């Protein structure tokens, strides 16, 4: 009886002990879970409040209102703060030919942050970011708008320092007038603290930033605690080159300019016009040129535009017959002579030979390919996008007077070229061509330009020999080249940048 009583009491004690331990464990686990839920709720609420702050700051910063107020709510374990000196944004334009970099803009961004435990929710650069467990995610996007080939970048800067805990309200106010950075008649840069000043050229004139942006690349670099979030956003908005520098905590996106669109001066011999970001397919809309005689001889002159990129080569060359170049505008008989013009194309990566198109009976006084007079000097005028000049497939007339050595590519007027197919979806293509078929200059120009990638140099050459600099007045020669630009998010044609300063007062 005694043993059973002792055993019963011992069992009761053990049961009570297990109950106490279990209850303590439940309370401990439940308390941790409750704290986690409370923390997550606080962060979620703050994200919502920061998103509202983002929207109101945009209204104020972009000039829609002078002041807006946002209730951020009560903090439990975290603190709100504003800092005018956190992060910076830099925009630079690197010239394609000279490899010189012009810093268009460079200034601090500032931020509004809420920090609790290991989590930060921040408003910066017109976006809201969340940093937690070593990673960064975007809550709402920054003010970086990329459409087609246009980048619009209103730089929203926080220009105040403040802090608050408990029930917090943010008052957003304009801090000065909107400043236009690009385009602008007067260039702006920074003196290290964000104040713009005029940038003078060596001759004392003031640089002008205007659209379209020509040559080279435009880069946007952000230095920030949230740089990885910026990098991911750059990747989603563009297909430009995005790089991350962990050591310097920066994210950079580089966009290529679409190069020369519009009027150009004739480059020096064997130099070129930069074609950047040309659209796929038959994207050339206008290509005209005027080549003016200089003090040297114009007899037997030939002039060409050519492209050599990788395995592909193209050349269009016109020849002025001997005897009419010098006296054409001084006692000659315009219209009594004819010009010759050839067009060549070859892709070494295909089994097809050189495609040759020719016309050796082009009237010299009229039409898309002709001679004209300017102050007594002879001018060669060519409209490469005219339908009024036709060419025949097969053969050539200009012989060896070309910039590219077509003999090395097995071009021969005595050998009939293989049939070829133009297989784009513009200008009546796909279409097959056999020896003796004809086609106009516009379609030939648009088709062969479309055979190259989005970036190439359209070079010029002329002869005979090396006397081109005395035969052609490059300063009075030039042309117009227009084309539809490529999409895909890696090119830039138009840049719009403004600086928009706000203060955020925390109460």
Automatic annotation (TrEMBL):
Amino acid composition bias (Basic and acidic residues), ranges on this chain: 424-434
Region (Disordered): 409-435
Pfam families: DUF7289 (PF23960), DUF7308 (PF23985)
Domain (DUF7308): residue spans on this chain: 275-484
Listed name of the protein: DUF7308 domain-containing protein
Organism listed in the record: Halobellus ruber
């Amino acid at each position: 009886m005694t043993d059973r009583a002792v055993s019963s009491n011992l069992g009761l004690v053990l049961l009570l002990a297990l109950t106490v331990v279990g209850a303590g464990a439940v309370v401990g686990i439940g308390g941790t879970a409750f704290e986690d839920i409370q923390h997550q709720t606080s962060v979620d609420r703050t994200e919502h409040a920061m998103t509202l702050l983002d929207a109101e700051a945009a209204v104020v910063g972009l000039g829609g209102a002078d002041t807006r107020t946002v209730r951020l709510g009560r903090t439990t374990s975290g603190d709100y703060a504003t800092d005018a000196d956190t992060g910076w944004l830099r925009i630079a334009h690197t010239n394609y030919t000279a490899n010189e970099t012009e810093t268009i803009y460079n200034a601090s961004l500032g931020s509004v942050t809420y920090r609790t435990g290991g989590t930060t929710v921040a408003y910066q650069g017109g976006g809201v970011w969340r940093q937690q467990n070593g990673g960064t995610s975007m809550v709402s996007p920054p003010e970086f708008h990329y459409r087609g080939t246009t980048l619009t970048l209103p730089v929203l800067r926080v220009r105040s320092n403040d802090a608050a805990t408990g029930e917090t309200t943010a008052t957003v106010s304009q801090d000065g007038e909107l400043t236009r950075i690009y385009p602008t008649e007067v260039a702006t840069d920074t003196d290290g603290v964000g104040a713009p000043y005029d940038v003078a050229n060596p001759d004392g004139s003031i640089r002008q930033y205007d659209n379209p942006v020509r040559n080279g690349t435009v880069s946007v670099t952000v230095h920030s605690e949230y740089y990885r979030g910026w990098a991911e956003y750059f990747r989603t908005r563009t297909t430009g080159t995005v790089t991350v520098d962990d050591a310097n905590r920066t994210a950079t996106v580089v966009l290529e300019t679409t190069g020369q669109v519009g009027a150009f001066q004739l480059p020096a011999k064997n130099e070129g016009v930069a074609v950047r970001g040309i659209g796929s397919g038959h994207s050339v809309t206008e290509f005209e040129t005027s080549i003016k005689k200089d003090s040297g001889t114009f007899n037997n002159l030939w002039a060409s535009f050519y492209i050599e990129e990788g395995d592909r080569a193209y050349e269009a060359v016109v020849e002025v017959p001997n005897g009419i170049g010098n006296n054409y505008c001084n006692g000659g008989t315009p219209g009594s002579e004819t010009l010759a013009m050839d067009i060549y194309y070859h892709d070494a990566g295909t089994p097809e030979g050189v495609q040759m198109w020719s016309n050796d009976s082009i009237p010299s006084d009229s039409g898309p390919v002709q001679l004209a007079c300017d102050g007594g000097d002879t001018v060669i005028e060519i409209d490469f996008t005219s339908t009024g000049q036709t060419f025949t497939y097969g053969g050539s007339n200009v012989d060896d007077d070309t910039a590219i050595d077509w003999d090395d590519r097995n071009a021969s007027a005595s050998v009939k070229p293989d049939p070829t197919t133009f297989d784009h979806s513009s200008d009546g293509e796909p279409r097959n061509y056999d020896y003796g078929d004809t086609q106009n200059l516009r379609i030939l120009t648009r088709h062969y330009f479309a055979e190259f990638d989005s970036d190439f140099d359209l070079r010029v050459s002329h002869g005979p020999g090396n006397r081109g600099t005395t035969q052609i007045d490059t300063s009075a020669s030039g042309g117009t080249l227009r084309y539809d630009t490529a999409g895909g998010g890696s090119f830039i044609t138009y840049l719009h940048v403004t600086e928009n300063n706000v203060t955020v007062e925390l109460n």
